[in-house]
Design brief:
8 helices; 2 strands; Glutathione S-transferase Yfyf (Class Pi), Chain A, domain 2; two-stranded antiparallel ribbon; binds glutathione; mainly alpha
Length: 179
C-alpha cells in the first residue's frame, strides 16, 4: 500500500449503512486521504500500481498478459460462483436449474484449467501478482459458498492455494457471513 494512503475494508452491508463513499454502494472502495474514493477493483489496482512500488500487474509482456488473462479467469469463476449461490437462495420453485447447471459446468472448466497453470507460471507462488490474489480469492469464495470438493480432484491447485491462503492478508480478509 502506498505511503500516505489508508485502505479501509468494509462489507457491503456496513457500507450501505455508513457514509456513502460511492454511489454504486459496492465493495471494494478505496477511501483516499483527500476525502475522495475510488471504486471498482480494476481502478483500485491501477491506482496501487501507479504509486510506483512493486506492481500487481507487470508492465511488460508476456507476464502482463498472463496476469490479466488469469485475472479474467478468476473474475469469471467468482461471477459464476456468485450466480450459483444466489440461485440457491431462491425458493426451489423459482430456481433456475439450467443456470445452476451451466454455471457449475463453467466453474468446473475453470478449476480444471487452473489446475494446469501453477507449474507453468513463474510468478505463481513467488512474487504476488494480481493473478495470485484474484485466483486465490475466487477459490476461497468457491470453498466458502459451494460444496464442490475440488481439492481432492485437483491436487496441484489445492497445493498452490495452501500457502496463499495462509498469508496474513488472506487470513485477515477471509470470507464470513455478515450478521
Ligand atoms: N466489478 C466490481 C464488482 C463489485 C461488486 O459486485 N461487489 C459486490 C460484492 S462482490 C457488492 O458490493 N455487492 C453489494 C450489492 O450489490 O449490494 C469490482 O470488481 O469492484
Amino acid at each position: 500500500m502506498g505511503a500516505a494512503e489508508t485502505a479501509s475494508a468494509v462489507t457491503p452491508i456496513t457500507f450501505l449503512r455508513g457514509p456513502v463513499l460511492s454511489p454504486l454502494a459496492k465493495v471494494p472502495v478505496l477511501e483516499l486521504d483527500d476525502g475522495g474514493a475510488l471504486h471498482d477493483s480494476s481502478v483500485i489496482v491501477e491506482y496501487l500500481d501507479s504509486l510506483g512500488q512493486r506492481r500487481l500487474v507487470p508492465s511488460d509482456p508476456p507476464a502482463r498478459w498472463s496476469v490479466l488473462r488469469l485475472h479474467a479467469l478468476a473474475d469469471g469463476l467468482m461471477e459464476s460462483a456468485i450466480r450459483v449461490t444466489l440461485e440457491g437462495r431462491r425458493p426451489e420453485s423459482e430456481r433456475h436449474v439450467d443456470v445452476v447447471h451451466w454455471e457449475t459446468q463453467r466453474i468446473e472448466r475453470v478449476l480444471h484449467a487452473l489446475e494446469k497453470e501453477p507449474k507453468k507460471l513463474p510468478y505463481f507462488g513467488s512474487e504476488m501478482s494480481l493473478a495470485d490474489i484474484a485466483v486465490g480469492v475466487a477459490l476461497e469464495y468457491v470453498d466458502f459458498r459451494l460444496t464442490l470438493d475440488w481439492r481432492k480432484r485437483l491436487p496441484s491447485l489445492a497445493g498452490w492455494l495452501e500457502p496463499i491462503a495462509r498469508r496474513a492478508s488472506f487470513v485477515k480478509t477471509a470470507f464470513s457471513d455478515v450478521p
